[in-house]
Specification:
Two copies of one chain form a homodimer. By secondary structure, chain A is mainly alpha-helical. Helix content of chain A is 50%, strand content 8%. In chain A, strands 1-3-2 form a three-stranded antiparallel beta sheet. In chain A, helix 3 crosses helix 4. Chain A is elongated, with a radius of gyration of 15 Å. The N and C termini of chain A lie far apart (32 Å). At the A-B interface, helix 1, helix 2 and helix 5 of A face helix 1, helix 2 and helix 5 of B. The structure holds a DNA duplex.
Chain lengths: 117, 117
DNA sequence: CAGCATCTTTGACGTATGTCAAGAAGGTCG
DNA sequence: CGACCTTCTTGACATACGTCAAAGATGCTG
């Protein structure tokens, strides 16, 4: 990606016509691509899956579950947070608990899927 | 990604339980991530969008439309083909025409979306 | 056949990304 | 307060990725 790095608020809800409706503008394509990139990693897919299935987990639960360092989990969570796919951590006792945001995932799909929604 | 590069046939139709159903296995997560990665680029999003909207286009149409070299378009198309999102090129006259594969996009969404389909 | 147009491959370059170890913050509990 | 635990940040490193120019393929056209 040797192009200028764009500054985009990926936390804001995605909002553009579906990919299949018409040739997508450069800006919209960038929005979509950034969110997809946030999910385009095996570890992050597993993190989201764990959070969706279990509801609420902390870093120390997630790290052993996906087999990486807690530092790495922390990094991935921050990527997912920046894309609005995961909630801000909520401190409770000595741990910080995270949640997935199913709506964000659904919104992304609605933009991508040519048939469904 | 300093891990071993996995060999996976991403052309085969994706086939695993939705992300939200249960904690996803490492292998399934990899499958999903690889396909997402294929789409997680602004140029490739626009290419898919163009192909979906216009139906059928050749490299020499696509290159100026997205603003990159034809060599680059060719590279992106091969990535999309490897992920089953775009059909093999079909030679006709002096051009090679490509098509998007909406079903592949839909299938990916069905795995990802926790609510919709 | 010779020349041309389109498309793909190769090589090279710079940037981005995923990972970890080590250290810094921030909060908890005795 | 002071020892401790969990989480986040920083720095460093190797690999992957997007891009283009140039060269190679492949098929059309005069």
């Amino acid at each position: 990606m040797p192009k200028a790095l764009p500054v985009i608020d990926t936390t804001a809800p995605i909002c553009c016509a579906p990919v299949a409706a018409a040739p997508m503008s450069e800006a919209d394509a960038l929005e979509v691509a950034l969110r997809l990139k946030a999910l385009a990693d095996p570890v992050r897919v597993r993190l989201i899956s764990l959070l969706l299935a279990e509801g609420e987990l902390c870093t120390c639960d997630l790290a052993p579950a996906v087999g990486v360092t807690e530092a790495t989990v922390s990094h991935h969570l921050s990527v997912l947070k920046k894309s609005g796919l995961v909630s801000d951590g909520e401190r409770r006792g000595m741990n910080v608990y995270y949640r997935a945001w199913p709506e964000a995932l659904g919104a992304l799909c609605r933009v991508i899927d040519p048939s469904c929604c």
